[in-house]
Amino acid sequence: MAESKMSLVLDRLAPIYKEGVFPGRSDQSGPPSWPDDPFHVLIATVLSQRTRDENTRRAADKLFQALPDIVSMAQADPLAMEDLIRPAGFPRQKAVAIQRICQEILDSFHGEVPSDIDSLLRLPMVGRKTANCVLAYGFGMDAICVDTHVHRISNLLGEVSTRSPDETEMALRAKVPQSRWRDINRYLVRHGQVLCLPGRERCQECPVQDLCDHGMQAKVSSGSK
Ligand code: SF4
Q: What is the fold, at CATH topology level, of the domain defined by 23-141?
């Protein structure tokens, strides 16, 4: 496979952002007290849906401290769980989903988070983004976790031309060497939080501007004024 633009972008971003972390394990409030095994990654990623990283982290810390394993979560009082995860928003919806996920894993997968995407996609509130996040960060497997940052920045770069995160995942799978798949989420999410902000991209400060279609257009536009 020829070297992709994405590989060059990742080569430049990696030394800047070093260890990217998945949502809920950011170290804003000190090192997390829970492990990055598949179960904790799965639950934290469900919590991270439609909220900011710092809210995910607060909810995950409270939840995992009070209910540290799959059995205790499955058997928890639903209202108590809602209280624990309230910082992440949508507490009822997420609490119901988490308890159903735990029960399904206990009933159908011998209490172990499955390591194949089709089984993960059977779980409530688990779409391709969450499933790939579990594969990449929980199991250390080659997977492309496409959240809104990855989808948006991949299109701005001109690496893909897609309308949905799922389309972006498939387009990137076809273009980017498998050995770099995990790095895409690791570094583009951080880039989207720090410099390539949604609608407020700081292209003039960006280390990959010369590789980026949107960045080069912005440069031409500003120079022609
Ligand atoms: S050049 Fe601009 S649009 Fe492109 S990745 Fe950098 S900040 Fe984002």
A: Endonuclease III; domain 1 (1.10.340)
